[in-house]
Amino acid sequence: MLSYLVHRILIMIPTMIAISIVIFTIINLPPGDYFSTYIAELQSSGEAADLAKIAFLKAQYGFDLPLWEQYIFWVGGLLHGDMGYSFAYNLPVNQVVGDRLLMTFIVSFTTIVFTYLVAFPIGVYSATHQYTWADHVLTLLGFLGLATPSFLLALVLLYLANVYFGISIGGLMDPHYVNRPWSFGKAASVAAHLWIPVVVIGTAGTASMIRRLRANLLDELQKQYVVTARAKGLHPFRLLFKYPLRMALNPFISDIGSLLPHVISGAAIVSVVMSLPTTGPMLLDALRSQDMYLAGSFLIFMAFLTVVGVLISDIALAVLDPRIRLQAGRRQ
Amino acid sequence: MPIKKNRPTRREVTQVGLALIAATALPGKTRAEFQETPALRDEVARGQLPKLAGRIPSEPAVADLEAIGRPGGELRMLMAGPKDTRMMVVYGYSRLVGYTPSLALAPDILRSIDVEDGRVFTLHLRKGHKWSDGHPFTSEDFRYWFEDMAQNKHLSPSGMPISMMPQGKGPRFEVVDETTVRYKWERPNPLFLPELAGPSPLFIYRPAHYLKQFHQKYADKDVLDSLVQQANQRNWAALHNRLDTMYRGDNPDLPSLEPWILKTKPPSERFVFERNPYYYRIDKEGNQLPYIDRVILSIADSKIIPAKTGAGESDLQARYLRFDNYTFLKESEQRNNFHVRLWRTGPGSQLALYPNLNVSDEIWHSLVHDLRFRRALSLAVDRHEINQVIYFGLAIDGQNTVLPQSPLYEPKYRSAWARFDVREANQLLDLIGLTRRGSEGIRQLPDGRPMEIIVENSGESTEQSDVLELLRDSWRRIGIKLFAKPSQLTLFRRRVFSGETLMSIDKGIENGLATAAMSPWEFAPTSQQQLQWPKWGQYYETKGTAGDTPSLPSAIRLKELYEDWLAAASHEEQARIWHEMLQIWADEVFSIGTVAGVLQPVVVNAKLRNVPEQGIYNWDPGAFFGIYKPDGFWFDLSEAAAKSASIDPSPPEPR
Fold first, then answer.
1. Chains A & B: contacts with CB separation below 8 Å
2. Which of B257, B313, B310, B268 shows the shortest CA–CA distance to B75?
3. Cβ-nearest to B311 among A41, A162, A285
């Protein structure tokens, strides 16, 4: 087990290097840089850019250096914990992310809990009651959830919530709570706003989770050991939870790998539509305006979380399911 | 011997000096009658702030307002990004000299300004004027910028701003006394005052007492080094540059002269600006401006801003609202107690077509250089139809040139080659020799290719595609096929610059409200950003190191005229040059205008007063709300107003 861990951790290093090269290349692929995009943007809205200031920044941040030198400069900074400088915000990157990370955690975490709470009972129920009318209704709802574009749902819910409940449009709290310390009122305001993004982001995830759980469980329910257990008179609930459900869980554990970065990045499109103060819209803006250090550092952070997440899920799988052997696939 | 020109005896006190007299005449007010601002009474009583008479200059600027207001209240606005904090500097519009709503230049922060021969500028500050932290605002602040910043290689690697040296040489700077400074050029500098009055102005002063802490020349080296380290910057210049954000306005510690000053430290989703207790303007009853205590900018995605505005979350909003939001906003007017007003916009044309004179395809190149071709294209644009279909007939048809509100306007500039006349357009094309027609009646180029014009755009709005859709039908009637190609902003410009693009569609000239004193650069090949002749503009911008020399005589003439304008000393001469340029521009059809003066919805809280019913929404001159001086806006919270606002939400009586 230990040597497996060491092996996996060592493999992460070249993976991260490869990812960083890919990220850096892709960010630099579109023509121009942050400043040319910025100037073009200003000019299209009729404003003049402060060229002296731009010349100053360009010289300061080595925009005239060859690409590989810029890359080394960026990665070198990352290793020292210096994530670079965001030109759009005019601040070091780690100060930009600040509060948004917490908000993203809150939204994503609540969404995941919501998804599990809704999807699990429904998935189990519709698997054990396959082809009953309840299964059909739930399946239909699930497909509707999958098929509805979430941004559309977001817009409709926003409008209705504003007209009928007087909740301010977009954002995660009433405007006057922004920048205030946490209080009961602020928490209540967040809770009042939170349900819309949670429902919207959660719907699609819930639907796909129901389908997967149902399919997995159906596979297991047909197997010999279930029939045997049932024949021996085990209580149906106990039987269900102790054996087939545990087997059906494996795909969810291997999902942890993609779950971790998801918690950080949130659902970008929905967040943009609802103007949530989360990291998703920030990343999207950074990519569009070629704010390279902000975008690059954020992406590399997400990549790191993915790699760690995959490691965790592999280990968890090995621990939870004795059928999985660590040595398989390794030739010595 | 030639007559000595520009002798100092012919001292011109320009209109600027005259306008000032009206502005500072205190109508019989004595110091005792100043009214302390309610929001600041506590602080004054506790001795944390001096009394009002001690905070404002001894000769404060007196605002001439439509209605005297009551201080207090909170103004909410919506913005789309952290960079938008600069809009408070634009809206606040405290400038050394600024435009009045009738577009005349008048001293604002300055008590007065003397101009001799358009080249010697003497600036008189107000005695006792203070920065927002209470430190005196003096000639030292001007000296600091001129000597320690503009001429410092680390802080200004590209040297002094262009507008400070239009003929390539900077001015001589002189501190006359504590409240007087003088800039002396050898030749006239007509760019100076308009630049000072710009929405993104040329700041020739800085809060020296604050910034000296971060300047190598004044600060203790060890202290400065540790500050640089703390701020995660590379050197003192980067730190200085980071903190010196006069325009961007995102440093809450930087002293300011604006009516509201930032209190929130970025990054944030909500920026709070509070009243500047040392602001230099008062109303006629002795109340210090601004009336409104706090301004709050909430950041939201630009696409959601119209919806939020409709939900009543903004008290004053025009930015990020578009004409097509009008019906939606009007519908929620009653429910959320606001009025939607329609202001005219300032560009010379909402959208204009730019035939690229630097296109690399040789046959097209010779065609777009043919005056008859450009005129024929313009004649085949049905402006009336575009106006009716897309802008409900509320816009003004015509070429891409100055608007009727501009003192330089003449109807012939706007109507030149702007009527819809398919027959004459066809005749012109036949005269060029494009008589061969292929399938579907499409004309053929001399080498046999069909005449297909691809019009590229930046893909920012669907409006452009809609206009092109209409244009396609009318151009079909002169045997030309039009294709629209939306692209991405940066890419679009690159293609135009390199000559790959034959024709583009974009906003018309920015300054449709020009006066003779404003620079006519947009009408001459002076910038690469000009989509009709990017390479010629680049040639001028780079002083001949890149781009091409203009090859059309008319374009060369425009450039010469522009240079003449830069050297012109008198207002009459400037006006004469402007008219000649506008006439050439009208004859040559370098850009094909569609409609102008499209309306901008402005949402105003029903209780907010002094916001003009009708106005101009423009960047320069205008600074959006800036020329209407938002420091004089106020909330009428009296019961009668509240009642009338809730019972009768119809727009106020027309004027």
1. 121
2. B313
3. A162
CB atoms within 10 A of CB B153: 8
Do the Cβ atoms of B279 and B114 come closer than 8 Å? no
Tell me the backbone φ, ψ of residue B601, rounded to 5 degrees.
-70, 135
Q: Is B273 helix (H, G, I), strand (E, B) or coil?
A: strand
Count of Cβ atoms closer than 10 Å to residue B165 Cβ: 15
Write out chain A residues lying below 8 Å of B300, CB-based: 170-171, 275
Q: List for chain B the helix, strand, coil content (%; round to 5).
A: 35, 15, 50
Q: What is the mean pLDDT of residues A53-73?
A: 78
Cis, bond preceding A92 (omega within 30 deg of 0): no
Main-chain dihedrals φ then ψ at residue B244, nearest 5 degrees: -90, 80
Distance from CA of A103 to the nearest CA of B (A): 12
Instruction: Return phi, psi of residue B56, to 5°.
Output: -90, 160
- Predicted confidence band at B651 (pLDDT cuts at 50, 70, 90)? very low
Burial zone of B282 (CB within 10 Å; 0-12 exposed, 13-18 middle, 19+ buried) = buried
Q: Give chain B's mean pLDDT.
A: 87
Q: Sorting pLDDT into bands at 50, 70 and 90, what band is A261?
A: confident
A interface mutation test: which of B243, B268, B301 has the most A CBs within 10 A?
B301
B97 bridge partner residues: B107
Classify A248 as helix, strand or coil.
Answer: helix
A-contacting residues in B 308-337 (Cβ below 8 Å): 308, 311, 313
- pLDDT score at B172: 93
Poorest-pLDDT segment among A62-66, B236-240, B359-363: A62-66
Q: Which residue of A has its CA nearest to B346?
A: A46
The sheet with strand B481-486 has its strands ordered as: B481-486, B452-457, B503-506, B352-355, B592-593
Distances (CA, A) of A16 to A265, B490, B574: 18, 31, 63
Q: pLDDT tens digits for A179-237?
A: 777 788 888 888 888 888 888 888 877 888 888 888 888 988 888 988 898 899 888 88
Cβ neighbourhood burial of A144 (10 Å; 0-12, 13-18, 19+)? exposed
The DSSP bridge pattern shows strands B616-617 and A91-92 to be unpaired
pLDDT value at B155 more than 90: no
- Quote the pTM value: 0.82
- Nearest CA-CA partner of B427 in B443, B406, B407, B416: B443
Partner A contacted by B389 (CB < 8 A):
no
Give the C-alpha separation, B78 to B270, whole Å.
9
* Closest residue by Cα to residue A48 from B82, B236, B400, B527: B527
A82 touches chain B (CB under 8 A): yes
List the Cα angle B468/B470/B473 in 5-degree steps. 105
Contact B293, B277 (CB under 8 A): no
pLDDT band at B504 (very low <50, low <70, confident <90, very high): very high
Do A46 and B507 lie within an 8 Å CB cutoff?
yes
CB within 8 Å: A52 and B300: no
Burial zone of B587 (CB within 10 Å; 0-12 exposed, 13-18 middle, 19+ buried): middle
Beta bridge mates, B593? B352
**Cβ–Cβ gap B300/A46 under 8 Å:** no
CB contact under 8 A, A178 and B268: yes
Give dist(CA B496, CA B406) in Å, integer: 30
Specify the pLDDT at position B163: 82
Average pLDDT, chain A: 81
| A273 interaction partners in chain B (CB closer than 8 Å) | 301, 303-304
Which residue type occupies B375?
Answer: R
Euclidean distance between CA atoms A80 and B200, whole angstroms: 38
Sign, CA dihedral A277-A283-A287-A292, equals positive
Q: Copy the structure tokens of residue B64.
A: 């001439």
